[in-house]
Amino acid sequence: MAVTRVRGSIFIKIFLGFWLVSIAVLGSWLLADSYIETLPAPEQQHRPPQDPPQRFVLRLIYAMQNTPAEQLPAIIEKAKSKHDINVWLLDRQGRDLLEQRVPAKVATVANQLRGRKRRAFARHREGPLIAHSVNLFDGSPRRMVMMFPKPNHQIIGLLIANNWLRLLLAILVSGLICYALSRMTTNRLRDLRHASRKLADGDLHTRIHVRDHGGDETDELARDFNTMARQLETRMREQKQLLSDVSHELRSPLARMRVALALAMEDEHLRLDLLGRMDNETVRLEDLIAQLLSTQENSLPLDKHVDLIALLYQLCDDACFEGNQTAKKVTLSTGLAEAIVASSGDLLHKSFENIIRNALQHTPEESEVRVQVIDTAGSYQVSIEDCGPGVKEQDLQRIFDEFYRVDSARSRDAGGYGLGLSIAHRAIVQHGGALTAENTRKGLKVIARIPK
């Protein structure tokens, strides 16, 4: 895992990138220079010597000046056979020491060595020539002419002859490498910039194409952006749905109040009854607004302690009293004497009351709602299970959304506003806990976990 993270790290990529660029620049220069310098001729035809050409020429000149005359033929033959270099040692009359035939081009470059001029260079179609003044071992002056083989490629010849051209080639190669590395590194950032602009323009479906796992920090950033975009899209969709639901819930009582007001203005005999109906609608509006505000509170101070056992016993007794008419029972089972948790006001009371009443409402007549409290590691788990029909698996999380009703045709009088479980869910989360739901063989079980 650690090896994968190191291999996929953008820091390592940048570090190795610049390192490789430096190595490429220096290496290309050194290798090209070493390759060219090890060639005794403009192009390698045989095994290269151990010394660069400058040193090769200098050593050859040194050998000519410090080797007895009887050993010079062996040195010249070695240069010919090993490096394909022809060597002439000319006297003042233009005769070769080894009595070789002296071509005109060799004599021409040798004649350039006049006065204090000790070196001459000439280009020929058969290959470049270098002439150098030497003093042999016996002290006699000679003009040494070396003819190198002609390079097969003109570009190689230009590189051999021009150090600046070799440097320019190294710069171009390193530039291409740097461009490729920079493009590879910044492609993801460019995609992220474009996606951010589209998201800012209101396109909430914007996503960046990225693998699900692995990659470097830019891939992780792209995945985080996609997660943020999905959450933002979900939040905006929920806000629109909430606004639509609130508008729908407010429109009905307001419409009834408007009708009642119109009738009251027309008929004085019905005015008192209509005013009473308007008062009931006003109370419903106040209750709805209070519940909406409860679902939107994000943080509350947990400034008091509550015993869950005592609280649930009270709520179960109240629910039993409410369910007596339909033979519904609510029982509490626990092995704990007390379960102390931090709370704020009567927030937990409202939350568990909503959950228990919801279970009581959906459990059939002559059935039982079971409430259980157990002690888990660091928290208390409260489960409320009814004997109702349960909820579709895809809707298990949606039951905690505002205004969600399992039966979409259920009226607010029969099914409430659809805010009870939403209030409970937000309250449990504010306590640092979690509220989940699952289907059982008998019905629906809502599980609340609250830290001790």
UniProtKB/TrEMBL annotation:
CDD domains: HAMP, HisKA. Gene3D superfamilies: 1.10.287.130, 3.30.450.160, 6.10.340.10, Histidine kinase-like ATPase, C-terminal domain. It catalyses: ATP + protein L-histidine = ADP + protein N-phospho-L-histidine. InterPro entries: AbfS_sensor (IPR041124), HAMP_dom (IPR003660), HATPase_C_sf (IPR036890), HATPase_dom (IPR003594), His_kinase_dom (IPR005467), HisK_dim/P_dom (IPR003661), HisK_dim/P_sf (IPR036097), HssS/ArlS-like (IPR050398). The keyword Cell membrane applies. The chain crosses the membrane at residues 12-32, 155-181. It comes from the Bacteria. SMART domains: HAMP (SM00304), HATPase_c (SM00387), HisKA (SM00388). It is found in: Cell membrane. Residues 245-452 form the Histidine kinase domain. Its EC number is 2.7.13.3. Residues 183-237 form the HAMP domain. The keyword Transferase applies. It is a multi-pass membrane protein. Keywords: ATP-binding, Cell membrane, Kinase, Membrane, Nucleotide-binding, Phosphoprotein, Transferase, Transmembrane, Transmembrane helix, Two-component regulatory system. PANTHER family: SENSOR HISTIDINE KINASE CPXA (PTHR45528). This is histidine kinase. It comes from Candidatus Seongchinamella marina. The lineage of its organism: Bacteria, Pseudomonadati, Pseudomonadota, Gammaproteobacteria, Cellvibrionales.
